[in-house]
Amino acid sequence: MAASILSRRAAVFCRTFKGISSSKPTNSQCGLLLQTASYNPRPLKLNLREKYIPDKDDRETPEWQKTARYDKKLFGRYGTASGIDPASLWPSHEQLDKIIAEENEWHPPLEVMLKNIKIKEKEETRKRLAKEKLIAANMAKMPKMIADWRREKRESKLKQKEEKARRDMLLSQARERFGYAVDPRSPKFLEMVAEIEKEEKKRRKLVKRRLKEEQVAAPVTPPADSSWS
Q1: What are the 10-residue block averages of pLDDT along the chain, 229 residues in total?
Q2: 11 Cβ partners below 8 Å, 6+ apart?
Q3: Torsion angle defined by CA atoms of residues 92, 98, 101 and 102, in that order, rounded to the nearest 10 degrees
Q4: Per-residue pLDDT, 119
Q5: For residue 66, how far is the Cα from the chain centroid?
Q6: Residue 2: what pLDDT?
Q7: Contacts of residue 182, Cβ cutoff 8 Å, sequence gap at least 6
Q8: Are the C-beta atoms of residues 75 and 89 closer than 8 Å to each other?
Q9: How many CA atoms lie within 13 Å of 77's alpha carbon, on the beta-carbon side?
Q10: Taking the model in full, what pTM does it have?
Q11: N or C: which end of the chain has fewer CB within 10 A?
């Protein structure tokens, strides 16, 4: 009935197309259209009630149907009718040890969890006490550290002051020697400073040698005799 309805509709379409189009369609085109409209394919012969057990020895069988995972699916679907040995689905000793290890790692027993909590609390307490001890030791050193910092700051200021006074003195000497203000970065000024330092070093050595000579030439007083005559 459906095929006859489609045939009639196709005929109406052909007549309408003839009236609209200026060129006349061929009979082959109408016949092809009628054949397409009346096509009734045969149903596929699939027996979905029969179980499908792949042949693992067949080369055309996909590799994923030869795995143990697919065997588990077949056994879960058909049971013993699948022809699969249930013992082959049980994990091996290595796999079972791995499963037990993962289970113990992610879901440990209550005793293990309590033990781990105690160990963690003990470690946190140790770290806290060590930190408090370090803070107490640093607080005990704080007065000395502050005193040292203040002393270093005073020494640094004194050194800067001495360096500034020495620099001003050298600039003054350079002004007297050359008759004009000299740039402290100029070769003339640096050469003068090297000459002055050389003279000061020579004078210090001379003073040191004189002190040594005076100590050698000084008379040695003998110790008083405390014995009774």
Answers
A1: 54 56 53 62 62 84 89 88 86 89 86 92 96 94 93 94 89 84 85 87 88 76 53
A2: 34
A3: -120
A4: 95
A5: 42
A6: 46
A7: 171, 174, 175, 188, 189
A8: yes
A9: 12
A10: 0.35
A11: C
Residue that has been written with the tokens 């030791």 in this structure = 137
DSSP percent split of the chain into helix, strand, coil, nearest 5:
75, 0, 25
d(CA 222, CA 99): 99
| pLDDT confidence of residue 125 | 96
Nearest CA among 51, 12, 19, 52 for reference residue 33:
12
pLDDT in tens, 54-95: 888 888 889 998 888 899 898 888 888 888 888 888 888 898
Helices 110-178 and 187-217 meet at what angle, rounded to 10?
Answer: 90
pLDDT at 221: 59
3-state SS, one letter per residue, for the chain:
CHHHHHHHHHHHHHHHHHHHCCCCCCHHHHHHHHHHHCCCCCCCCCCCCCCCCCCCCCCCCCHHHHCHHHHHHHHHHHHHHHCCCHHHHCCCHHHHHHHHHHHHHHCCCHHHHHHHHHHHHHHHHHHHHHHHHHHHHHHHHHHHHHHHHHHHHHHHHHHHHHHHHHHHHHHHHHHHHHCCCCCCCCHHHHHHHHHHHHHHHHHHHHHHHHHHHHHHHCCCCCCCCCCCC
Measure the CA angle with vertex 146, ends 140 and 147; round to 5°. Answer: 105
Decide if 192 contacts 177 (C-beta within 8 A). Answer: yes
